[in-house]
Design goal:
The complex is a heterodimer of chains A (about 170) and B (about 425).
Chain A: H1 7-14, E1 37-43, E2 46-52, E3 70-72, H2 85-97, E4 102-107, H3 114-134, E5 142-148, H4 159-165, E6 167-170
Parallel strand pairs in A: 4-5
Antiparallel strand pairs in A: 1-2, 3-6, 4-6
Chain B: E1 8-9, E2 26-29, E3 35-39, E4 43-44, H1 53-63, E5 67-69, H2 87-91, E6 97-105, E7 111-119, E8 124-133, H3 138-154, E9 163-172, E10 175-184, E11 191-196, E12 200-205, E13 211-216, E14 223-228, E15 234-236, E16 244-249, E17 255-260, E18 267-272, E19 277-280, E20 288-293, E21 299-304, E22 311-316, E23 322-324, E24 332-337, E25 343-350, E26 353-360, E27 366-368, E28 376-380, E29 386-393, E30 396-403, E31 409-412, E32 418-424
Parallel strand pairs in B: 3-5, 3-6, 4-6
Antiparallel strand pairs in B: 1-11, 2-31, 6-7, 7-8, 9-10, 9-32, 10-11, 12-13, 13-14, 14-15, 16-17, 17-18, 18-19, 20-21, 21-22, 22-23, 24-25, 25-26, 26-27, 28-29, 29-30, 30-31
The chains are: A alpha+beta (about 170), B mainly beta (about 425).
């Protein structure tokens, strides 16, 4: 998925660990403005942003522009975690500005049965889908595909591995 | 984003793959007083055959947990016909039964195996029987002998000539490669049905044992396929958005119960092969999945979390009446039934661990049959004597089996990769 230069959003992207700070992202109407460049730095758990003039250098970033694309869930739960919401709002903004088809791939950990976990993975994907639609994304852009426990991100049978596997990936 | 076209390969099946996952049997416990039986070497004119028939028969009977087959090294004599049998040779080593037999090549080139079952204490010949086959069918001949012996002594139809379908996942150059495999019930003669870089799951046998239905992600989303064993011909049956899963063949072979979420959440549907029509059977906002048929073809059992946690329910297909069957524990899922519909087997969570449990549907008694912690995918042998399931050994998925009375168990560890989702064929 390619995005036009969305500078305010890029700024958020670079600041992925502090996305909440950017949750009031500019409305789509600001997308094409081109007034100066942004630099950001992070240090010791705080992040600061500043704006200077004329040093903007554009370059392609990876397809998702550095934003979180994987969202995690609690055991046997399909409710979005609060920490997922800021990044999901950014995804919503991007999809409104630049409508492209997106797959929401839902996954479960290995505990429980495989087909039930397919259903659980789908519920997680649907949670993300519903959130994006509530933000104004066209539902027809979104397809939820559950992989259940069939494509684990981590292969170990441990709590930490399981927590990495209960996820939705935006693709 | 464009949906990627996933590459997949269908390999035409029934090519034996001796070096692939290679399941081998490891018996982990048997019943306290197994029946003692000796299988005298079954040879052709005194010479060994390409497959050791008597060793295969002995291993079959051992695996049932009900028998202990005598080691050949301890036999005092090796009769191949009834006239060579000296009962004393078997009585003094405590054998209850003896099998003797031999193989001849017929004028038409086929092999003919004659075998007898003898009761040692009564000095009684219980039967003499002949079975014929090609050179490539020596293992079939052996399993045939096992079935006949097992039935004569226990009264239970042997399931040694049946097969298993299962899925393997093997890491190849950093990527999981998925295979749908079919083997003999003893894990031998493994054959590849489908190989894909995308997941394969939920294999289910047709009632005549000639086809499998399964879920494959090769199109980029889960879809249900049916595939013939004899010529690998296959057909994609579903291509809906959302879940396309958990196929279960009806006892008459004319339809599949399956799960679709095209209407918003997982519901159970009936798909008729003749009309290609889908009929929705459940209507509930919860998860309804994992349907399996009662033997009369009039009811389904399935998993639903409509009561707040996953439990097993029964659905009458005509009246659509739903009845809850399980009440013990907070997680009961993926039901399967014994052939007589009396024993429900399922995945049951207790103290955070997932085990296989059996519930007697008449008395309601629930017994946990397994002791490992991530047990799933139970499948009952068509004779109801054993069930197979998937579990973990270390971080590796392996198949294991346990008798319905939990008295005997064995493992089928693979040398490479994960093995999962066993499905025991019909007779």
């Amino acid at each position: 998925m390619k995005f036009e230069a969305l500078k305010p959003i890029l700024a958020c992207a670079l600041l992925s660990s502090f996305l909440v700070a950017c949750s009031s992202t500019p409305s789509p109407s600001t997308n094409n403005t081109d007034n100066g460049s942004s630099t950001l730095s992070t240090n010791g758990g705080v992040a600061t942003g500043s704006v200077d003039d004329g040093s903007l250098s554009g370059s392609d970033i990876d397809t998702e522009g550095g934003i979180e694309t994987v969202f995690y869930f609690d055991f046997d739960q399909s409710a979005l975690k609060p920490e997922s919401l800021a990044a999901l709002r950014i995804h919503a903004q991007r999809l409104i500005a630049n409508p492209v088809n997106v797959r929401l791939e839902g996954h479960a950990d290995e505990r429980g049965t495989r087909e039930y976990n397919m259903a659980l993975g789908e519920r997680r994907g649907s949670s993300v889908s519903e959130f994006l639609v509530l933000q104004g994304v066209d539902a027809s852009l979104l397809e939820v595909v559950s992989y259940g426990e069939e494509r684990p991100a981590s292969l170990d049978s441990t709590d930490s591995s399981w927590s990495l596997n209960r996820r939705v990936e935006i693709k | 984003m464009l949906l990627k076209m996933y590459k997949f390969i269908v390999l035409f099946l029934l090519l034996p793959l001796p070096a692939l996952a290679d399941l081998s049997i490891e018996i982990t416990s048997g019943v306290d007083n197994p029946t003692s039986i000796a299988i005298s070497p079954i040879l052709m004119k005194g010479a060994p055959l390409a497959e050791d028939i008597s060793a295969i028969v002995g291993a079959d009977l051992d695996r049932s947990g009900l028998f202990a087959a005598m080691s050949r090294a301890n036999m005092l004599s090796n009769p191949s016909t009834l006239s060579d049998v000296y009962y004393r040779d078997w009585r003094i080593v405590g054998m209850q039964y003896l099998v003797v037999g031999n193989v001849l090549r017929q004028s038409d080139g086929r092999l003919s195996a004659t075998f007898s079952l003898v009761e040692v204490a009564g000095e009684r010949v219980l039967f003499t029987h002949v079975v014929k086959g090609r050179d490539s069918e020596l293992r079939d001949i052996a399993h045939y002998i096992s079935d006949k012996v097992f039935y004569t002594i226990t009264g239970i139809k042997g399931a040694f000539s049946t097969r298993l379908a299962y899925v393997t996942a093997i890491n190849e150059s950093g990527r999981q490669v998925y295979r749908l495999m079919v083997s003999d019930a003893d894990g031998a003669r493994e054959r590849l049905m489908l190989k894909s870089k995308e997941p394969i799951m939920s294999p289910a046998w047709s009632p005549n044992g000639k086809e499998l239905a399964y879920v494959s992600f090769e199109t980029g989303r889960p879809a249900i396929f049916r595939q013939r064993l004899d010529n690998a011909k296959r057909e994609q049956l579903t291509n809906f958005k959302g879940l396309n899963g958990a196929p279960a063949w009806s006892p008459d072979g004319k339809s599949l119960a399956l799960v679709l979420s095209k209407d918003g959440n997982p519901e159970i549907y009936l798909y008729r092969f003749a009309s290609k029509a889908f009929t929705r059977l459940t209507r509930h906002f919860s998860i309804d999945t994992e349907p399996n048929w009662m033997s009369d073809g009039k009811s389904l059992i399935f998993t639903s979390d409509r009561g707040g946690s996953p439990q097993i329910y029964k659905l009458d297909i005509i009246s659509r009446k739903v009845e809850r069957l399980t009440f013990s524990g907070s997680y009961n899922a993926r039901p399967r039934l014994s052939a007589d519909d009396r024993t429900l087997v399922m995945v049951h969570r207790s103290q955070g661990l997932f085990h296989i449990a059996a519930q007697d549907l008449v008395t309601g008694d629930l017994r946990v049959l397994t002791q490992t912690r991530l047990d799933e995918s139970p499948t009952v042998a068509p004779n109801g004597a054993m069930l197979m399931y998937a579990t973990k050994r270390g971080n590796k998925g392996v198949l294991a089996a346990v008798s319905i009375d939990a008295g005997s168990r064995f493992l089928l560890p693979s040398r490479r990769g994960d093995v999962r989702e066993p499905a025991w064929s019909p007779f």
